[in-house]
Amino acid sequence: MRLPLRHPPLRRDAVLRRCRHLELLAEAARGLPLGPAAEALVEARGRGRHGNALQWHFGLDAHDSVPVPDWEGRIEIKLISVWQRADGRLKCDRIKVCEASVNPWAKLANVLFVFADRLSRVVLGHRFFHLAGPSRTQLERAWGLDPHFDRPALMIESRDRAEGMSPAYYLAAWWLAQEGLLPPDPVELGYRFDPSWWRSVRAEHRGRDPLVTLARTEHGQLTPCPRCRGRLRVDLDRVFEHGWAPAIHTMPHGEACALRGHVVIDPRRLPEPACATDQEQFEGVEGRTSAARLWRLADRVPEPEDHAH
Fold this sequence. Notes:
five-stranded mixed beta sheet, alpha+beta, 2 domains, 309 residues, globular, ECO RV Endonuclease, Chain A
């Protein structure tokens, strides 16, 4: 159910906020697998666990829905899950901004959008956004639009949850493309995503996500499983044509592979990691990073003396 906006726009450009430290972290996040941190942060499980994992990698405490921007109260950090369309262009769902009780204009004044592939959970890139000029005036038009019959870029939607109705502000997915935050042309990185297949596999395996495996052979119907002594039966031609394909784990299989769905992906579609080794990236994508080997991006990116605020 869509509801009218609760917070009127300020009708003036937001003050530009920047931080060189955050810029360096965002640049270093390219190729970062978010899965290991999302799995390790027990207190941050749920739909937003990968966003919390990104915040943890940036040196922040894992949190969600706080009323002030994430970074020093100055810049909001938004993780956007994206996937490829059939034509190679990137697509995403609508983006949650904040709870309906929080001022969305303050949250959107200065934003770091980080884009991660939906299937592999690897960071593909980022964009900074400042609510000013034509971008501001276009977004502010949502204040005067009907949430049902018009096409507002910003809206309140309320969803039924166990604890009751939960209204929140959302940005329309098309707004990212309109603002040039998503590339308009086809890209070679990332993967297609089949939500119906994903849901069915999760339902079949007690709500657990399928395990992702990188293809290690280029021909045939079998590829080795990196987690145990077994093999995965998969259509490798489909993997290298479309980027991924469902797989069936053959016997024997270890404890980590039992009672799980499986998918094999083409490793050539992963971005080159900026601050990790290829091995660390591959282990992270495949869920093979142990708690003892979990590393934090903020520990590898030196904090500059001048944050250029």
